[in-house]
Every structure is written in C-alpha cells, then in structure tokens.
TrEMBL record:
<dbReference type="InterPro" id="IPR036900">
    <property type="entry name" value="A-D-PHexomutase_C_sf"/>
</dbReference>
<feature type="domain" description="Phosphoacetylglucosamine mutase AMG1">
    <location>
        <begin position="166"/>
        <end position="274"/>
    </location>
</feature>
<feature type="binding site">
    <location>
        <position position="271"/>
    </location>
    <ligand>
        <name>Mg(2+)</name>
    </ligand>
</feature>
<dbReference type="Pfam" id="PF21404">
    <property type="entry name" value="AMG1_III"/>
</dbReference>
<feature type="binding site">
    <location>
        <position position="267"/>
    </location>
    <ligand>
        <name>Mg(2+)</name>
    </ligand>
</feature>
<protein>
    <recommendedName>
        <fullName>Phosphoacetylglucosamine mutase</fullName>
        <ecNumber>5.4.2.3</ecNumber>
    </recommendedName>
</protein>
<feature type="binding site">
    <location>
        <position position="269"/>
    </location>
    <ligand>
        <name>Mg(2+)</name>
    </ligand>
</feature>
<feature type="domain" description="Phosphoacetylglucosamine mutase AMG1">
    <location>
        <begin position="290"/>
        <end position="442"/>
    </location>
</feature>
<dbReference type="InterPro" id="IPR049023">
    <property type="entry name" value="AMG1_II"/>
</dbReference>
<comment type="pathway">
    <text>Nucleotide-sugar biosynthesis; UDP-N-acetyl-alpha-D-glucosamine biosynthesis; N-acetyl-alpha-D-glucosamine 1-phosphate from alpha-D-glucosamine 6-phosphate (route I): step 2/2.</text>
</comment>
<comment type="function">
    <text>Interconverts GlcNAc-6-P and GlcNAc-1-P.</text>
</comment>
<dbReference type="GO" id="GO:0004610">
    <property type="term" value="F:phosphoacetylglucosamine mutase activity"/>
</dbReference>
<dbReference type="GO" id="GO:0046872">
    <property type="term" value="F:metal ion binding"/>
</dbReference>
<keyword id="KW-0597">Phosphoprotein</keyword>
<feature type="domain" description="Alpha-D-phosphohexomutase alpha/beta/alpha">
    <location>
        <begin position="56"/>
        <end position="89"/>
    </location>
</feature>
<feature type="binding site" description="via phosphate group">
    <location>
        <position position="67"/>
    </location>
    <ligand>
        <name>Mg(2+)</name>
    </ligand>
</feature>
<feature type="binding site">
    <location>
        <begin position="503"/>
        <end position="507"/>
    </location>
    <ligand>
        <name>substrate</name>
    </ligand>
</feature>
C-alpha cells in the first residue's frame, strides 16, 4: 500500500472501532450478530470485498442481511465472482480482519495479506462492488452517485438534507444560473471588454476536466479551453493544482504559446483551484496566483458589495446590517497575503492545516472566507445573514429597483448560490473568479498585482516517525522534540523577513517544511537548512 492508502485506511477505520469484548467469525454465512455491534465488521468486510474484487478482477457482491435471524440482528456476507459464497480460503482473513483490535493491527493485516496474495493495488482496474440489503431497519441505503468531483458529492449531500433536488443537473444549473446572474449585474461601461476573455483550464487528468466540459455547454459568456481532461495522461502526474502550486512550473500540455492567457489548474478530485500565467522566455516558469490571492479577490469583492449595500442614502440605520466578516488562513499563507488582508481592514484568523479546521472557523462568521494557499477554500454565509439579505433585497426591489444597493444585495445572494457552501469547490470557485474579474475588468496580471508574494519554498523530509513532531499555535511552533524550534528560530533569524515552520503531513508519511524570505535563494536556503535540522533531530527514514 502507498502512504495515501495507508493514511486513508487508518483514518477511516478509526471511525469504526470494534466493540470491546466482541469476537466475531465469518461463520456459516457471513458475520451475524446484534446489529448494534456490527459497524466495524461491515466496514472491514467492505475492505475485503474491494481486495477480492481487485484480486479476481471481477465484480464482488456484498449483502447486508441476517437472513432468518430476528429483526434486531443483522449481518454481512460476500458473493464471489461466480455468484456463489466467498471462497473458504479467504474466511480466516475475514475473521482476522473483524477481530483486529485497532486500526494499526488492521493496517498490518491488510498489508500482509495484500503482499501474500499479490493483490494489485496500483493498477488501472478499480474494484467494483454490488451492494444489497434486505428490509431490516438497520441496513443503510447506499446510493451510488457515480463519477463525481468531491465537492459535487458534498453539495449533493447538503442539498439532499435540505430536501432539495440533488442531481448533477441541479448542481450545474445552480452554478450556471448564479454565474449568469453575476455577469448580468456587471455595471455598464465597466472595463469588461478590455480583458482577455479566454481561459485555459488544466483538469489534472481527473474528474474535474470531464465535469467542466459538461458545465461549459450550459455556460454563456466564457471562452474556456480544457486540457488534461483525462483522455490521455496520468492523474496528477506533472499536472494539476498541487503540482503547479508546489513546483511553480507549467503543467504538461502548456507552454510558450500560452503566454499572456489566463490559465487555471484543478486537482485530481477538483476541490483545489489555482490560477497561473506562463512567463515569457522563462523555461516553463509561471506567475502563480494561488489560494491566498483567490481569497483576496473574493474578500475584496464581498467588501465592495457590503459597502455599497450599507450606504446610508437616507436609509434609517436599522436597515444597515454589518455582518461579521472573517478571513481564515493557515501558516502556509504567504506573509504578503496576510499583510494585504490586514491592511485592507479585514479580520484574519489562523487554524491548523486541513479544510475541516478552516471550515469550522469560517462558520463562526456571518460571512467566513477561507482558503489554503494550495487552493482549497470557499465562502460560507450564515443562515441568519442570508435570511436578512433575502428580505432586504425584496424590500429594495420595491423601493429602489435598479439601485446600486439592490444590485449589491443581488450580487451577494448570487455569490452564496454560486460558491459551494458545503466545501471548497474548484468549479464553483473558478466561475466566481471569472465573474469577479469580468466585474472588475481585470486581467490576471492586474489581479496578481494586488500584492507581491514573498518568495517561498516547500520541501518534504522523510523521517522514521513523523508523529514525534508535536506543534502548537496553528502549527507555527514545534513543542516536541525539544530544542528543534530554537534551532529553527536561530536559522530563520539569519534571513530578513524570514519565516519557517515544520509540521507532520496528515496525508503523506513525510514532514513538511515551509520557508519564506525576501529572495528565492534565501527561501531555498532556509528551507534546506531547516530540512537538515529535521533530519538531525528525527533521523532520516527510508
Ligand atoms: C488534503 C486536505 C487539505 C490539506 C492537504 C495537505 O487535501 O483536504 O486541507 O491542505 O490534504 O495536507 P497535509 O499537508 O497534512 O498532507 P487533498 O486535496 O489531498 O484532499
């Protein structure tokens, strides 16, 4: 298994710990017990089903039933490729999986079994499981929504739980309608026609490019060319938002012919978005417009609308409502972006890396804008503010239709529908960026000039045990191992405007090093020096 597979297995299995003191066996016809103790078993048999499917390169069945047992029981069993019962020589593995005391043992078991059985985990062929259940109340309904971007699934779950229609068509319609609304609200005489309308999108050879092709068909007002949409090329290899942001070079399929054109890059599941422009005569180097700058653009636009909406113009004070507006970043945010946002009068707060932390923090505001530098982010609107905005907008439609205030209210409502309220979404983020650039009449260069990034460098260091690193203060200070933070501080102090931190990755078996300084050489040297410190304190891994 690779690091990502291990991390996913560890993280997901820790959500379904086995109940203490319960020992289960695959038995006569699968696992069977009181339904209340079966969660971890069903989860683990799902793993077995996937492995069996990969091993046999066939469809495998998973049936949730306790057959003739009483209603409070439930069970789970496998149907083999022939349609018959699970081959008996896999039953001991099923038992061992079910009884593994914790996630680490489970991981070890799976790892050993995959090696012993020579199961291809990295092949192009993915597992296919047919899932069935009987009528027991403890059987969950699984609806396979098919191939989707991660944010589409999050959007659908949210919509479904709000009793809204939640198909891909509704998702696309909501995005295209709210985008159209923002475009229609662009003030007459804005510099819109002066900007280059063409956008080229790198789809990371993943699902995002495929979905953008579909969305594009119902969009008006955008000239989008999609490359790396997965028909050729390998997912995330030399392409995609992570590659572009970390390496700061063009993705495959882009080159000197694209100089001057606005370009964007999605990641493999389309929850990250970065923009870039190809530099002339620069050996494939790019001007990166990262998540921090997307955040800055969004914050600027939202502030502009709030200011317009709250212009007094004879209104009584109680018609003005100043929502709380907060901006959430992580330690990876470029120092120049934080300075810019603070100088613009915005409240900036920091959390640990991970969308789950940023999202939670942003939800504390009426309008919370969060972005990681890597392009993960969105804008959250509180229900209370949206309710007020809806009312205010209807009122303005009666009293001052067509006024700047009414348009500002309509723009904010459109943003709340365009931008994915469930999770960061590269497709909806891209449409909002495009709408705002048209509104401002800005080229990518004008946008990029909002502030100038401090040069930065990110490195990965392999160590024996990355969990030995314990951090505090939104991952800016290492409290264990003792002494390493002092050593990092001493190194950082050698560079003007130097800033550096280390943290254990939560998705790969590495320690991440981030450094920034006033020149590229200084940022590189600082990152390299601190990477060596990590190596000294934590020992090189294999
Ligand atoms: C995930 C998380 C992001 C995080 C990234 C890197 O992204 O959703 O919030 O920034 O991993 O995390 P780490 O530095 O801990 O490895 P993705 O795009 O892989 O889902």
């Amino acid at each position: 298994m690779n690091d990502k597979q291990r991390a996913i297995l560890l993280q997901s299995s820790s959500r379904f710990p086995p109940p203490p003191g319960v020992k289960l066996s695959y038995g006569t016809a699968g696992f069977r017990a009181d339904a209340s103790v079966l969660q971890s078993t069903v989860f683990r048999l799902g793993i077995l089903a996937a492995l069996r499917s990969l091993k046999t390169q066939s469809v495998i069945g998973l049936m949730i039933t306790a057959s003739h047992n009483k209603i409070s029981d439930n069970g789970v069993k496998i149907a083999d490729p022939s349609g018959g019962m699970l081959s008996q020589d896999w039953e001991p593995f099923a038992d061992a999986l079910a009884d593994a005391p914790d996630s680490q043992h489970l991981l070890q078991l799976v790892d050993d079994f995959v090696k012993k059985e020579n199961i291809p985990l990295e092949g192009v062929q993915s597992a296919e499981i047919s899932l069935g259940r009987d009528t027991r109340p403890t059987g969950a309904v699984a609806v396979d929504m098919g191939i989707l971007t991660t944010p589409q699934l999050h959007w659908m779950v949210r919509a479904r739980n709000k009793s809204m229609k939640a198909t891909e068509l509704e998702y696309f319609e909501q995005l295209s309608n709210s985008f159209r609304c923002l475009i229609d609200l662009i003030p007459q005489g804005s510099a819109v026609n002066k900007m280059n309308n063409k956008l080229i999108v790198d789809g990371a050879n993943g699902v995002g490019g495929e979905k953008l092709e579909l969305l594009k068909k119902i969009l008006n007002g955008l000239d989008i060319e999609i490359r790396n949409s997965g028909k050729q090329g390998v997912l995330n290899e030399g392409v995609g938002a992570d590659y572009v942001q970390k390496e700061k070079v063009v993705p495959c399929g882009f080159g000197p012919a694209d100089v001057g054109i606005r370009c964007a890059s999605l990641d493999g599941d389309a929850d990250r978005l970065v923009y870039f422009s190809v530099l002339p005569n620069a050996n494939n180097r790019i001007d990166l417009v990262d998540g921090d700058k997307i955040l800055s653009l969004f914050a600027l636009f939202i502030e502009e609308q709030l200011n317009t909406l709250n212009k007094r113009d004879g209104d009584t004070e109680n018609k003005c409502y100043r929502p709380t507006l907060g901006v959430v970043q992580t330690a990876y945010a470029n120092g120049a972006s934080t300075d810019y946002l603070k100088h613009s009068g915005l409240e900036v707060v920091f959390t640990k890396t991970g969308v789950k932390y940023l999202h939670q923090k942003a939800a504390e505001y009426d309008i919370g804008i969060y972005f990681e530098a890597n392009g993960h982010g969105t804008i959250l609107f509180s229900e209370g503010f949206l309710h007020w905005l809806d009312g205010r907008s209807s009122e303005l439609a009666l009293t001052s239709k067509g006024s700047g205030q009414q348009k500002a209210a309509l723009r904010l409502l459109a943003v709340s529908k365009l931008i994915n309220q469930a999770v960061g979404d590269a497709l909806s983020g891209l449409l909002l960026v495009e709408a705002i650039l048209q509104h401002m009449g800005w080229s990518i260069h004008r946008w990029n000039d909002l502030y100038h990034d401090l040069p930065s460098r990110q490195l990965k260091v392999k160590v024996v045990d990355r969990t030995a690193i314990v951090t505090e203060n939104a991952e800016t200070v290492v409290v264990s191992p003792l002494g390493i933070q002092e050593a990092i501080n001493a190194e950082t102090a050698r560079y003007p405007r130097g800033r550096c931190f280390i943290r254990p990755s939560g998705t790969e078996d590495v320690v991440r090093v981030y450094a920034e300084a006033t020149t590229e050489d200084a940022a590189d040297n600082l990152a390299n020096a601190v990477a060596q410190l990590v190596d000294q304190f934590l020992g090189g891994g294999t």
